[in-house]
């Protein structure tokens, strides 16, 4: 029973995070929201998911985890970094024009 509760919670949280991010990014692509809003939402979502590092440190590292956790950690770090870089570059380009 506890395993099903955990799976449901993880699906709901990840689904909610990425549904919100997808909606904000889609609205930014359509020009309804500013691009900076999408960069901020992406940085918050991926930055929050990076806290996985703290959890891994508390439990003593990556031992016992499969490739999925390693891949997710890489995706989260990449998503966070790319959203920060995109925000910075967008600000630079808007100042230049």
Number of domains: 1
SSE string: HHHH
> Helix tally?
4
Return residue spans where pLDDT drops below 50 for at least 5 consecutive residues.
none
What is the strand content?
Answer: under 5%
Question: What key attributes describe this structure?
Answer:
about 100 residues, 4 helices, flat
Question: Outline of this structure?
Answer:
The protein contains four helices and no strands. The chain has helices at residues 2-29, 35-49, 52-59, 67-96.
Describe, in plain words, how this protein is organized in 3D.
With about 100 residues, this protein is mainly α. The chain has one domain (about 1-95). Helices cover about 85% and strands about 0% of the residues. The protein has four helices and no strands. The protein has helices at about 1-30, 35-50, 50-60, 65-95. Helix 1 runs antiparallel to helix 2 and helix 2 (about 35-50) runs antiparallel to helix 4. The longest helix has 30 residues, at about 65-95.
Describe the protein's topology.
Blueprint: H1 2-29, H2 35-49, H3 52-59, H4 67-96
Helix pairs in contact: 1-2, 2-4
């Amino acid at each position: 029973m506890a395993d099903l509760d955990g799976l449901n919670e993880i699906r709901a949280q990840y689904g909610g995070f990425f549904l919100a991010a997808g909606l904000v990014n889609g609205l930014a692509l359509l020009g309804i929201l500013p691009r900076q809003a999408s960069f901020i939402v992406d940085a918050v979502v991926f930055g929050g998911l990076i806290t996985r590092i703290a959890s891994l440190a508390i439990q003593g590292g990556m031992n016992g985890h499969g490739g999925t956790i390693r891949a997710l950690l890489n995706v989260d770090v990449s998503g966070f970094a790319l959203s920060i870089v995109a925000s910075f570059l967008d600000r630079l380009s808007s100042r230049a024009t």
